[in-house]
Each structure stands twice: as C-alpha cells, then as structure tokens.
Amino acid sequence: MIRVNSEMAGSVWKLLVAVGDEVAEGADLLLLESMKMEIPVAAPAKGKVAEIRVEEGETVAEGQLLLVLAS
User: Fold this and answer.
1) What is the C-alpha to C-alpha distance for residues 12 and 60, in angstroms, rounded to an integer?
2) The pairing of beta strand 2-5 with beta strand 10-15
3) What contacts 44, CB < 8 A, 6 or more positions away?
4) Please, which pLDDT band fits residue 22 given cuts at 50, 70 and 90?
5) What pTM does this model have?
6) Total of domains in the chain
7) Which long-range contacts (CB under 8 A, 24 or more apart) does 64-67 make?
8) pLDDT at 58 (0 to 100)
9) Which helix (H) or strand (E) covers residue 66, if one does?
10) What does the pLDDT average to over 29-39?
11) In the predicted model, what is the mean pLDDT of residues 19-48?
12) Beta 59-60 vs 65-70: how paired, if at all?
C-alpha cells in the first residue's frame, strides 16, 4: 500500500480520481487550495486507488493521509 499524504495545510478543492481508478506515476490525484493557489497532489507511483480519506471542501493538515494506492 502506498500512502499519499498532504505536503501542506489547505483545503481539498477537487478530487480527480475515484476508488478503483488505475493511475500512473505522476498523475494528478487531487487539487489542494492553499493561500489562493491550486496545488496538484501527484501519485508517487503507479497503482489503483484503494481508499480516499478526504472529501472536497475538507480542510487538511500537513502530513495528513489523503488517499491510499494499492501497488
């Protein structure tokens, strides 16, 4: 399992994947909004989206688990 954590505090602006989606390494998984900037969160490796732990509009902390990929 590959854990994808937030690199910064912000809010989840848009989810770009759903559970079950296959993603390539580097593919954008979701967009965070912080200080009026949109920051993409990319997949660190290829895999299948196993869990999404956040919802659009949710505020997240730095280091918080966003989603899990199955390799």
Assistant:
1) 7
2) unpaired
3) 2, 4, 25
4) very high
5) 0.92
6) 1
7) 64/5, 64/6, 65/3, 65/4, 65/5, 66/4, 66/5, 66/6, 66/12, 66/29, 66/30, 66/41, 67/4, 67/17, 67/29, 67/30
8) 97
9) strand 65-70
10) 95
11) 97
12) unpaired
* Alpha carbon of residue 30 to chain centroid: 5
Number of residues that make up the chain: 71
Task: Using CB atoms within 10 Å of the CB of residue 46, give its burial: 0 to 12 exposed, 13 to 18 middle, 19+ buried.
Answer: middle
For 68, left (φ over 0), alpha (ψ -120 to 50), or beta?
beta
Q: How confident is the model at residue 71 (pLDDT cuts 50, 70, 90)?
A: confident
Amino acid (1-letter code) at residue 51? E
Domain interval for residue 47: 2-70
Q: Indicate which CATH number applies to the domain containing 47.
A: 2.40.50.100
